[in-house]
Structure formats: C-alpha cells, structure tokens
Amino acid sequence: MCISIRHELMTDLIPSCQARILIVDDELINRHMVQKMLKRFGIVAIDCAEHGIEALARLRNQTYTAVLMDIEMPCLDGEETTRRLRTELKLEQLPVVAMTSHDSATDRDRCLQAGMNDYLSKPLNTKDLYRVLQRWLDLSATTATQDTAINPLLTIPGVDSVGALVRLDQNVALYHDMLRMFYQRNRNTAGQLTNLLATEQWQQARLLAHRLKGTAGHLGMCDLEAMATVVEHGIAKPPLPETAIADLITELARILGELATFSFVQTPNTEHTDSHIQYRIFSPQLIPQLQQLHRLLDEDMRAARVLMQQTAERIAHTTAVLNMQSIVAAIDDFDIDRAQHEIQHLVKKIDHADE
What we know:
The chain is built from 15 helices and eight strands. It has helices spanning 28-40, 52-61, 78-87, 105-114, 126-133, 161-167, 172-185, 189-198, 202-219, 222-236, 244-259, 276-299, 301-314, 321-332, 336-353, and strands at 2-4, 14-15, 20-24, 45-49, 66-70, 96-100, 118-121, 137-138.
C-alpha cells in the first residue's frame, strides 16, 4: 500500500537514468528485491546501507536523488536516521520514503514527524514504488509493467506465489532469486531463535522474528508471516503464547522442505570455478581487511558492519563476492561463529591462490 504523507512535486523531474537511490534496510532479501525493482525503472545508480549509521556515512559523501528507508533496523532506526539527515546533514529537501510493515495511523504520524516524505507498506508492491518515485523522477521512458506468464512450477503449498508475483510485477526471475535467498538464509533460523530465547536475548530474538515476518510477507508465505508476527509481538509485549514458537518452527521447517524440492534454490557448487587471478588481484588489501573484520566481530559489531560493507564493495565484481555473501548472511543471522568461520575460509582460499 502506498500512502503519501508529505511531498512537494518538483517542476523539473530528474530522468531515471541520472538518478541515484539509496536503499536502507537491514534485510539482504529486501535490498535485493528493491534493487531489482529500481533497475526495471531504468535506475542503475543504486547504493545500499544496512542501518542508519551506514546510511548517514554514505549521505555525507554522496548526493542522492531519494532514499528508501526501512524503519526498524539495528544500530540506528529509520526515524532517527531521517531526523539526523535533516538536522545534522542539512538535507532538508532530500526525498525520504519509509518502507515498513507497520502501517497504522500512529506509525504514519511518526514517519511524518521524523521528516519523511512518503510511506510504503510492506510487502512492497512494484506499482506503488513506481508511483511514489514518479513524484521526483521522470520514469516516462520506462514501464513498471511486464507481461510475463506465471510459471506453474511456482505452486508451493502454503505460499501465495500468485499474490507475490503480482507485487513483483510478474518478475519470475526475481521471485526465484528471493526464494533461493530465503531458503539459504533460513536453514538455521529455528535454532538461532531457540538459542536467543533460551539465553534471554529478547531484542535480538524479536528482530529475528521481525526479519522473518518481513521476508515471508514479500514471498507470499502468509501463515509463516502471521506466526512470526505473533512471536514478535509476544516477545515485545509478553506473555508469548505457549505454542507460538513451536508453531513457527514447524511451519518454517515445512516451507523449507517444500522449497528444497526446487532445483533453483540449491546453491551452485563454485568450489572449483573460483578465479585464482581475481583472488590474487585483491589479496594484498583484502586479507588485512578480513582479519580486521574477524577481530571486530568480537569487539565492535557496529564497526564490523561498516567494514563488512566496504569490503563487499571492493570485491563486488570478483568471485570472492560469493564468499562475502555467506559472511553477510551469517552476521545478519547473529551467528558470529559462522561468520568468523566463513572469513577464515575466504582467507585460506586467497592464500592458496597466491601460492
């Protein structure tokens, strides 16, 4: 749902090919989805930030046409980020569009008070995003509509793939990507959630349930979305319903089992196809960065995330990015041990390439 809460139409719209958009969202699947949507509108200059602190750092060094801002994020949320970019960075005219699963009147008022210009409810809809961006961009040379037939193989029990594809403007390739990412990123989610609750890490457990709710909604996993919502609310405002965790874990396991039957969700084996040349080009600078990232994961998570983004950008066009995606996924899942293991694995591959 698209709800305009405050905007000023520009008389000279910026052509989409000249625009630069900043996506701020802590969930990798969401960032990937929005990037693909924007590219279909002819927007190719797109940057991403995982939280408000990283977003403010980017805004200090780069001019953007608009910002698409998630609300609930670790480190610094969307509302406070918007306040700071208005007051500290003096970006009073920069269009900021909220993206959130909370769509009550109170939530919209908070976005308005924080200085945001527009409001998009999750799960996002391609056409709503298109209509919002038309206020600042000239999208006349592009279209948000594509007549692509729905692939009948996308029928999954418990998943409204038809509704999801409608929101994605029938972009089957993007839907496949998102389902694959969901499968790969959530195979350990049940164990992580159980461990966080057992160790009374309530805020991280709530954020994990919130992330699961958001991605399930985008993918049409309605029952899973509803169950994750119950868990999120139960953690935020106890008591948590007695069977809520068990119900969520059971449904997640069922969905993952269904997805496992599709060949496109399986990770391709790249172990013997990595380019030694590409690893060698980056190894002098990359190894110290990775070693620093390994250390920061134990000492300063905020600094680790900033360094992680810088490292990912440096290797974006090399085969090493496949390993970096695993590191990012582990950190997003609050699995520090796995992230450090992935870092060590990448360092060994680079060392081997230099022999």
